[in-house]
Amino acid sequence: MPLTDAELDQLIEDLGLKRPRGGSARKPIAHGTFRGARQHRYRKEQLCQRCLDAETAYYRERRAGKPRTRKPKPKQYLTEEEWQARVAARRNGGESQ
Ligand SMILES: [Zn+2]
User: 91 alpha carbon to ligand 1 midpoint, in Å?
Assistant: First the structure.
């Protein structure tokens, strides 16, 4: 016969078990990423080679001044006429009464 949640809670309490609390300490480490390296450090663990590599690469990249950002879209400049046409189109289409 399966236990109800309440019974299970009681059982856990009776046995003196601690439920895992939600928190970053319980999450699996994302090895091989900078985040993983942070997790190792947060837990005062020695970094595994993959995380160490990722961290090294991360800092090297930052130092090189090449942050990983997406290419900014080229700005689109409208001529006065195009701008007016766009405004007019928005007015005509947007306000249907
Ligand atoms: Zn790791």
Answer: 56
